[in-house]
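Researcher: I'm preparing a figure for a lab meeting and need a structural model of a single chain. I don't have an experimental structure, so a prediction will have to do for now. The sequence is pasted below. Please return the structure as tokens so I can convert it later.
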Amino acid sequence: MLRQRTIREAVHAIGIGVHSGEKVRMTLRPAGENTGIVFARNDVRGGSPIRACADNVSDTTLSTSLGRDGLQVATVEHLMSALWGIGIDNLIVELSAEEVPIMDGSAAPFIYLINTVGIVEQSALKQFIRIKREIEVTQGDAVAKLSPYEGFRAAYTFVADHPVYNRYPKIAELNFSNISYVDEVSRARSFGLVKELEHAQAINKCLGSSLENAVGIDDFAVVNEDGLRYQDEFVKHKLLDVIGDLYLLGKPILGAFDGYMSGHALNNKLARALLRCEDAWEYATYDSVEDVEAGEPILHPAAISV
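Model: Understood. Here is the structure written out token by token.
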């Protein structure tokens, strides 16, 4: 049987919040079976833990933030994406400030951090959310959709008319049955136009942004000295964000995602729409990875609480 996973022991990192610019200490701690991913603010006395779930999303301006009882944890999507990528079900994330550290702007440093202490399998069965029928949401021209599929496939179309963006692939479709998230997606970094940084900082966003944690783009080229990590790094980072946002459903999805111009707000709208439609999904456990790909689940009735 496929079982839940957590980390072997606590591990620490120090970084800055990309939007706040504040230094933050992050501690990842093992969590018991069926805990899920939980964030705790150590800088706030008596603060309630914040469960990583779609209904707790409080802000989607340039990142995904969670909020509960007046507390907020910002920029959770890269860490959530990393946890999905290496199959972590249960974890406590302690922070000394409001924002998860941005690290290098990708999910890879979080995976490296966890691999330094190792992953342990727990006794409880891993549950998946198996998509039974199509769910689609829109926002202007943007579209995000989930469809039935045995395994997980994600496709994204990045739309941006700019001389630099136009040189690189804008469409990616990845079947995670035969590609590695760690190798093919996790290293894709945040990116943005240098000329838009001033505006973002005027609304108190990207105060900690630099070429150490993002790909910078001027009118003619990528300005980072080492260039891109993948030829299609821009669109792959969009997929990295999607995966992190959808993992706020509380369990990994078995299905196909298709996105056209979707961002954090629409990704969360899709997750909430799915949870409202109980006939569109069901819980499932599996004996093995091969059973996942063959579509041979052990099914459980759908329920709203994830």
